Amino acid sequence: MGDTRAKKSGLSADIQKKLNAKYSEEQERQCRQWIEAVTGDTLIDQEIGMNHFNKCLKDGTVLCKLINTLNGEALVKKINTSSMAFKQMENISSFLDACKVFGLKDGDCFQTPDLYENQNMSQVLGTIFAVSTVSISKHGWEGPSIGVKIADENKREFDEETIAAGKAILTGQTGWNKGETQAGMNMGKTRKVVDM
Question: How far apart are CA 37 and CA 41, in angstroms?
């Protein structure tokens, strides 16, 4: 965790442990290799681990360069190189805004403190995977990628005869169950009142 926050205790500490447990070093390796392949730059800290990966991305410059490279033109117009905290957070915020323009949904994006204060690095990994997915699915990126490709639309046209035949089929979802009932089914124990 970052140096700017007090040590967590109680419920907050338990939640932080769960967030840290979700972090995957294998996903980190994939993200590192992909970022280096796309940007052509080597990350500053080559050691694997949540804190080391956070150190590589904390100032936001790598992420801004990544999204600009994938888009082909600059979505982040100005990348701050200052070591001042608010400038680094501004880079992260600019990256997140660019992600939304790029095609990511709000739920796919981490929040600035997740990265800057090392609060939820598993969400940061998820966002990087989502950026790759959107780059190949919506932008036609043909370079290296991680994650999955979003399925293409497969719209189907049926004639009236096929539609009518489909309506004639009764399924369990329509309530037709071949005469079966729930008689004899038991959901847990029954409550019995006994006089003693």
Answer: 8
